[in-house]
Task: inverse folding
């Protein structure tokens, strides 16, 4: 491959995604580098071939647990903010995922602290790919559309079934059942 500033940047981003745990198939799709180059980068970094297997194919996964749902919503919000700032979809994903990665931090066993990061690069990339440029995600897997809806209590945009009219996010919903919350009310 002829080296240009753009190709150098893509290779650098591919290495970054690979270090964050992306397999070659996702690295190639997310950065636009050739699959053979993505496989070579994976081998170089991890010392083994990129594992085969399916990439994510269902949106249902993101709604299954409140913490997952919150993190997926955050990643998606970061992605849309990058799109609004004029990033290409490819650059928006890489920038948003990088911020998301740093918010949740790396696993640090010396502090007995495990990373709470729940969305790996493959799940992240699938999510933004399905999101397109606007909020509603088409979800044949759950038989209905899901969208990032603003919570009517705190205003945070959280992934939810798109038909939910008066939506309250899981954080606020659990607060309503909390005795401490009732005392203050
Ligand atoms: Zn809320």
Result:
């Amino acid at each position: 491959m002829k080296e240009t500033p753009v190709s150098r940047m893509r290779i650098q981003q591919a290495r970054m995604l690979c270090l964050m745990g992306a397999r070659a198939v996702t690295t190639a799709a997310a950065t636009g580098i050739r699959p053979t180059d993505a496989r070579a980068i994976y081998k170089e970094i991890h010392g083994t071939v990129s594992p085969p297997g399916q990439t994510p194919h269902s949106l249902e996964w993101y709604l299954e647990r409140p913490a997952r749902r919150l993190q997926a919503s955050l990643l998606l919000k970061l992605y849309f903010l990058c799109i609004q700032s004029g990033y290409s979809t490819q650059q928006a994903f890489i920038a948003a995922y990088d911020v998301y990665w740093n918010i949740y931090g790396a696993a640090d066993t010396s502090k007995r602290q495990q990373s709470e990061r729940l969305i790996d690069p493959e799940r992240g990339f699938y999510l933004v790919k399905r999101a397109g440029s606007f909020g509603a995600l088409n979800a044949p897997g759950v038989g209905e559309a899901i969208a990032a809806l603003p919570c009517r209590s705190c205003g945070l945009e959280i992934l939810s079934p798109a038909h939910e009219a008066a939506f309250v996010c899981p954080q606020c919903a659990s607060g309503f059942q909390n005795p401490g919350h009732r005392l203050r009310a």
Q: What stands out?
A: The mean pLDDT is 83. The two ends are 64 Å apart (CA to CA).
